[in-house]
Design goal:
Radius of gyration: 20 Å
CATH class of the largest domain: Alpha Beta
CATH superfamily of the largest domain: Enolase-like C-terminal domain
Number of helices: 13
Structural class: alpha/beta
Helix content: 25-40%
Oligomer: single chain
Largest sheet: 10 strands, mixed
Order of helices and strands: EEEHHHHEHEHEHEHEHEHEHEHEEH
Strand content: 5-15%
CATH architecture of the largest domain: Alpha-Beta Barrel
CATH topology of the largest domain: TIM Barrel
Shape: globular
Length: 405
């Protein structure tokens, strides 16, 4: 068996853009007619720049190769250009191509991928969601803790046992910074209102995205400890694990991190520094399914758990579900709501979600198929905005609105 062709599809996500502004899918085909799909989580460059990069990587390292040889694909791409170091964009491309290979491998064997990566150990997967109020149009209003509490209670009624929120903004190219007292008050009030709304029926997942310097993160954590969050996410920027380890040593709240890291090497540094006990790899970024499985094994050695990150499309989600299903130290999987809306429309059969849990598919491969009519209806992507963006200006305490309530 060998791979003979690839298609790349850039899908513009319709408003409210849940899961990002666009998704990058690849479809591989073998000489015996088996097709496999993958998703690339590469937010650094515009998709117009990514498409020729994807084509270059495919032609150099995968065309006319056996899709079973995923170790060879990883080592050759990891070493591309005489590098042999984590490269976020390259690993994003490799992740999509590698998961498409696993989709082919599973279909050829007539088994779900999780059966080929250790076997099913998680027949259902606990899931969580960000709070997406229906009247917020995808842009959350972090000046309204009562709206957050209502949304959290509604998600608990649906079956979620954990909800995530991030009132510690803004995200800026100049982070980490020291949070203002007003932002600290806002974060504390959000946790208070949401805890009152859900009681002990759901865990609180306090999300940040590296906004803080360590001293500010420690100040915030001390305020939040009384609400017993399940985690404090990526409190400082991802470049220095020792700094995150400093935060971890000063709080009882577990630290979760890893969505912006790639390959086993960066996660090894994170774990060695004692910086996180909950590992949030994104399968569509870290180097693919096999690399993610190795990262999960590293975490297992450190008695850490995995909570795969997912803010992208349903192919990456399907790969993440395959990983979670065969991983002993799995904790919880990020969901985009209940996998309805556009995440369901773009698949022939939506991801199965029941009362707070994802049910892994028993179909061969990744267990999902793209609805190509919907893909074509939402291609190409015509905007200049990247998948995710950060504010261009430093955080200014005078620009930050006080919490209400």
């Amino acid at each position: 068996m060998k791979v003979i062709s690839m298609e790349t599809h850039v899908v513009a996500v319709p408003p409210p853009h849940l899961g990002g502004m666009y998704w990058l899918f690849v479809k591989l085909k073998t000489d015996d007619g088996i097709e496999g799909v993958g998703e690339i989580y590469a937010a650094t460059f515009h998709p117009d720049a990514m498409v020729p990069i994807i084509q270059d990587v495919f032609e150099r390292y995968l065309l006319d190769q056996d899709p079973h040889h995923t170790e060879r694909l990883f080592r050759q791409t990891y070493s591309s250009g005489f590098t042999q170091r984590p490269d976020l964009t390259m690993m994003g491309v490799v992740s999509g191509l590698e998961m498409a290979c696993w989709d082919i491998i599973g279909k050829a064997a007539n088994k779900p991928v999780y059966q080929l990566l250790g076997g099913l150990v998680q027949p259902r997967l606990r899931s969580y969601t960000y709070l997406y109020p229906t009247n917020a149009q995808g842009e959350y209003d972090y000046d309204d803790p009562d709206l957050a509490a209502e949304c959290a209670a509604e998600n608990v009624r649906k079956g979620f046992t954990a909800v995530k929120f991030d009132p510690a903004g803004p995200y800026t190219a100049y982070s980490g910074h020291q949070l203002s007292l007003e932002v600290l008050d806002r974060c504390e009030l959000f946790c208070k209102r949401i805890r009152e709304a859900v009681g002990s029926k759901a865990d609180l997942l306090f999300g940040t995205h590296g906004q803080m310097v360590p001293s500010s993160a420690i100040r915030l954590a001390k305020r939040l400890e009384k609400f017993d969050p399940l985690w404090f996410e990526e409190p400082v920027p991802p470049g220095q694990p020792e700094a995150m380890g400093d935060v971890a040593r000063h709080t009882s709240i577990p630290i979760a991190a890893g969505e912006r890291l790639t390959t086993k090497y960066e996660f090894h540094q994170l774990l060695q520094a004692g910086a996180a006990s909950i590992i949030q790899m994104n399968v569509a970024r870290v180097g693919g399914l096999l690399e993610a499985k190795k990262i999960a094994a590293l975490a297992e050695v450190h008695y850490a758990q995995i909570a795969p990150h997912l803010y992208n499309g349903p192919i990456g989600a399907a790969a993440s579900i395959q990983l979670a299903a065969c991983t002993p130290n799995f904790l919880i999987q990020e969901s985009i709501g209940t996998w309805d809306g556009f995440h369901a429309a773009i698949l022939k059969q939506p991801i199965q979600w029941e009362e707070g849990y994802i049910i892994p598919s028993t179909e061969p491969g990744l267990g999902v198929e793209l609805n190509m009519e919907v893909v074509k209806q939402h291609s190409p992507y015509r905007h200049r905005r990247l998948h995710l963006q950060m504010a261009e200006n430093p955080a200014d305490v005078k620009d930050l609105a006080p919490a209400k309530g």
